[in-house]
Specification:
The complex is a heterotrimer of chains A (264), B (234) and C (314). Chain A is an all-alpha fold. Chain A folds into 3 domains: 46 residues, no CATH class; 81 residues, no CATH class; 113 residues. Chain B has 2 domains: 83 residues; 96 residues, no CATH class. Chain B is built from 8 helices and no strands. Chain C has 12 helices and 6 strands. Chain C has a 6-stranded parallel sheet, with helices on both faces. In chain C, strand 1, helix 4 and strand 2 form a beta-alpha-beta unit. In chain C, helix 6 runs antiparallel to helix 7. The longest helix of chain C is centred in the C-terminal third of the chain and has 37 residues. Classes of the chains: A mainly alpha (264), B mainly alpha (234), C alpha/beta (314). Chains in contact: A-B, A-C, B-C. Chains A and B meet through helix 1, helix 2, helix 3, helix 4 and helix 5 of A and helix 1, helix 2, helix 4, helix 6 and helix 7 of B. Chain B: Keywords: Membrane, Transmembrane, Transmembrane helix. Chain C: Keywords: Membrane, Transmembrane, Transmembrane helix. Chain A: Keywords: Membrane, Transmembrane, Transmembrane helix.
Chain lengths: 264, 234, 314
Amino acid sequence: MKRRVPLIITFLMGVLMVVTFFIPREPFGSFEQRMLVWFSILGGFTLLLGLDSLVKHHFRRIIRKRKDSFYSIVTLVSLFGTLAAGIVTWAKYGTPLEFASLEQIGSFYWVYWWIMVPLQSTVFALLAFFIASAAYRAFRARTFDATLLLVAAILVMIGKMTMGVVPAALILAVFLVAAGVYRFFVREPVLGIIFGSIGVALGVLVIIFPAAKIAQIAPQVQEWIMSVPQMAARRGILIGVTLGAVAMSIRIILGIERTYLSST
Amino acid sequence: MSFANLLGLWVAATLTIAILSFLYRDNPLYKFAEHVYVGVSAAYFIIYSAKFTMELQLINEFKSNLEAYLQQGSTSGLVEALLLIIPTILGILMLTRWVGPKIGWISRWPIAFTIGLGAGLGITGGIQGVLLPQVQATIEPLWVSPFSGANLWAAVGSLLMILGVVSTLIYFYFSRPHRGFIGVVSRIGIIFIMVSFGAAFGATVMARVSLLIGRLYFLVNEWIGGTIDFIQAL
Amino acid sequence: MKFIRWVTNIDRRIIFLLMFVVVLVPILIDIPLETDVGPTVEAAYTAVDTLPPGSVIMLSVDYDATSYPECHPMIVAVSNHAFSKGLRIILVAHIPTGLPLGQAAVEEAAFEYNKLHKQEYDAAIKQAITTYPDTSSVEFRQVREDAAVKYKKRYGVDYVNLGFRPGLASIMVGMGREIRDFYAQDYKSTDVDSLPMMKRVHNYEDIALLASFAHGKQVEYWIQYAGARYGQKIIAGVTGVVIPDLYPFLQSKQLSGLIGGLKGANEYEFLLGRKGLGTKGMPAQSTAHILVIFLIVLGTIFEFILSILSRRKS
């Protein structure tokens, strides 16, 4: 019961999906459709899965009066407060998400717009600071590959600017020259000359050409990197990953891969 | 602007600053905002589940099918209504995890249902949607970019692309040691992969910066600007 | 040597402060800038622009506030563009916490359109009253309806919000047969059949274009399950992080256009002649890029020097 039934269900569902793909006619088509609808309904239940552990965890913290129990109260008050807002708005408008209710303090939409959105987006905005710090501390161009990676990254960034392209390109030129000089010290003079001369050439070009022209070329360089070398590697990886995913799906259906059963 | 939205602006601005204060150091204000976030988002999932799945997909669907049976005597309506009990039971079985491991194992049944269905879809989707079209698009003779006309530059690009795809695939082919010819090709593959990772890093920087712009734009233009507008309107 | 070591280990809060200033200042000054439009955004714009009036475009909200500044200006721009071209919008969402954002974008676009054409609408009604004084007559109603079709965007007629349903891939596959199997009712529990614009919409064959605004893998799912399986034409508006993942699909023409990141939003707004967050944010984006590039280069040059000096010593 604990293992065999799930394996049979997985096998039947997987085979059904593949069969109906090739034979979409009735009765397979409508049967598949029903399974897809059920899948969606089950998804609605999974939205609730993490809830019990969250509530239990915070209730426990409050009851045991741990030192951070104040924050647990905050979490539970926000949870039940938002729930109440949702239910009240729902009862009033027939839906919790009535756009007009934004004008009412404490409505579900109001809570979303003025509490949820700022919290969610600011938490992620913190990453801008961390990536700036990482750029300064973590990225090193000691090897040829790492240098190439950084040059590609800088070119992409330059291609996504609407002003200041010239100073950015000059910084890149300085970087290339420095990388070239460094290559000499690690006894790779050929690469050193290549990097150095590209750097010098870039610097000269940026100074000679009018700024408007440079600003026009930069996005095209970016587009080329994205659509040719980047795309090629990405496609290689994509094909590899998809082959792996298809193989994994087959293993799951055949019951060879069973790790999903050990999660409970 | 209404008073509700003015108040909202100030709540939002306070929370934004509370989160940003984490940059100086971890502090009670940040912790407070963080815990509000956890609570509010959990409530959202409950309401969504209740509105869109429980009400629309289950209760209303059940009601309309039952009505069709009661009013028009449509037996298919009755069957449809009764069939809805199955996903409901499966869903409830899924939630047996709440109770604990003693009964929780039964949640494997609905999980097996979703895993099996997902795996089946993944096979056909992966082959039809990714493998075949991606391979096909690679072996097109001297590819012409859809966005730029046919020219020598495009032909060079398309040759480079073929080289890039093949060498990347070979780099990830570990069944043979990377020596000799395979070694050379996989070395070329690394170069392409490095450019790709670099491009991805550049794009990521861009995305992260945008998020910060959004918040500072809100603080400057919506919060301060909006408050000034409100005062002027008085 | 000491100095360089000190500088490389500088308190990171100084870098945070630099970042803050570099982003804040351009926002305070508000610099107007023009932009070049890249081929992928132009393709997306053309895909929307060339649809015949009355076509149905499906907007899928596959992002939430975690990527608000990137995806939101895009969906705002595309909604406005669609309304100005007489297209009809179906809004769906695959990220629950993103739905209200998409809803706000479409509702505000409709509001803006109605405000812009209010005078024309009022004039048409005035004209109708003088021609047909009996406001309950069939003729008057017909003229009023004609005016509304031209100058007003109404819920159920020009746009619908089908709300959120869980299931992602399963819904994408299932909608190829019948949308109602998943969305029998809209977000307000109104029967989809009672909404005028949905009467003739059943599956992808009735949807001219699908636009996914995403911050994850959702576009790839759309391509696999709606694009490859049912031949649905798809464009995407995505965050910077997702851009590189989608280039293989652009080249294989499985994706008909791509709006990428804040710059992409900026380009779309430029084509549309609107000034939204995409346009207003770009100066700050540019200065921040310069700062990051500068930091990378400075960090690596210090590293070079340290490495060379330590080699000398040994």
